[in-house]
Write the structure tokens for this entry.
Amino acid sequence: MKKIALILTLTALAAGRLSAATAESSKIFTPFFDMTLAENGYMPSEGNIFSGGNINTQVGLLAKITEKDQVFGLYNFNYGGPGFAPQDTKQFTDRTLTHGFNFEYRRSLGGHWRVRPGISLSKDYTRSGANETWDQGLYNTESKGFQLAVDYSFDAARNGFVTAQFLTRNIEFPNYTDLFQEFMNPSVTSELSGGQQDQRLTQVSLRPNWNKFFGGVTYTMQKYKNQKVVGATGDTAEKQEDTTTTLDFGFHHKLWIFELYPVIAYSVHDSNQNYIRYKSIGDVSPYFMADNYSYKELSFSVPLDLNITSKWAVGGAMSVVKRNYESRLRRDKFNNYVAGEKQENTMTTLTGSIRKRINDVAMVRLSYSLVVASSNNEFEQYMPYNYTGNSFGIAYQLSY
Amino acid sequence: MKKIALLTLCLGLAAGPARAEIDWESKGMQIAGEILANPAAFLYEFQQDLEGTTPLPPGKRYGFQTGLWGGALPTIGIMPSISGKFRLHGEGRLSPGLPQLDLIGGYWNSPLAGMAADQSDDITDTKFNGHYYGFLLSSSVSPKVRTFWGFKKSQLKAKISFAPTADIELLGTPVNDIDTGFEDSFFVVGLESPKGLNKLWSIQLNYGMDTQTIASKVSWYGKYFELGLNIYPEGVFVVHPVWNFHLNF
């Protein structure tokens, strides 16, 4: 599931970036460059200290062929290192590496309309420790697909436009193999139990922007090619199918020395996949948990910067991610499901920061965050659900 | 400044409830394990500290650089190096908009290797050196911003050969030599911006295409010195402070 969340995020980010780049009217070629570099130290209440970084680099070139025709290419490098993350998403030590390529053709139609067909290729690496090999990550993926976006501009003076987009990706997990199936069925070769995560992702979205207000609705469907839905007595004939509907809204406005850029999102994730819990290898009466993965999630982030001078700012932010499972029951510390009590996770992050603008294109930020993760799930043998954590970090951002 | 002090105090107070006991012994073992798992990659981080991967300043035709300090090491003594840059084409010279093209390269060789062989009867031969070469293309996108991108090929070699009489064993197995190395082709991309007269600031990403080695460099440099903060997010020591000396003509 952690991989799927990442794919959804990266897909949305890439789509957003593509529409963000605009040509300067006097130039045939307009470069696009954005690099964010962050390094943090983490001190959780459970486990030892660790460090982790995030690097996001985007290099693009927009070529104006005629007044109405443009071509845009974008390379995106993303590294996500160890760090705190909402429960049930990833472990502290997990890290990811992504190379994404997007090519887009843009055609203006009249004064208001624009169409943007494009293709996308990406390769993702994952690993859970520095001593593992990137190439052999269980959740490595290769993705390819295309998208078609249509923009309608309704208020050029205040950057008002609506974007409707359809995209599809064919996502393969070349290294994924179902270790449990292999263990339970030693006669089955690893090849037969591979490819279980391969899927086709389809996404449609409608996103209006106006006067630095933005929002939208996004519907994502993941159809698994081989993964069967597990039933109480084993695999069923039905294949796994997940959908996610997300509503989000935000803005970025300045008032005097205050700079506020909050975002709120509400997601409904629905999966037909179930889960069988074995308490031990020899468990002869495993527990069947139907509809294990469906949930509703509310997340919001409220960052506020106080621009003390033109160069210096102090900032504060509060972000909350709250997930309520539809059917999954919470577990006690002995891995027993508690009847009638559904699992709920909450992660709250409070951040304070000092930001210095180095020049027109660059800034540096020193920050401290306090993370409070809480859940009614008390079974934490494999992943912490209830902890507090401190993190200190430095981040550079350079954008042209 | 009062606000910053107040904020720092508030953050310090908030940090209290989440403070955990740090297991330094466990952390030390983890670091030692990461070094032993891939010693060459660990050593290569210090080579990257002394590699010159920013373009020549506009108007300069060639330059030299040597590493003074990298990570926790005085590289001028432990890994003395010489790096060079040579401009093949100035930006816009042949054709408007055609980027500046620089050739880059360098070599280092550690005197510690020879000293170890000379002073120990158990060690017969040692090698601890490295080199890199490549090119950088740089293009101004505004009066205050220059982007650069390029390629470099890097190699590091570390070898110790033991005398037959040394009777060296590792986990019960006789060891004649330890021969390790690192080699990769890197994609380099970055952005440079002036901070003042003859002062520049840059941020760059170096990505090793075979080993997926990642390095980010943030640098401030002037007429003679470069101060940097190299970040190896998957490295053993993640942050390396860097100090290099250079002359450009």
Notes: The radius of gyration of chain B is 22 Å.
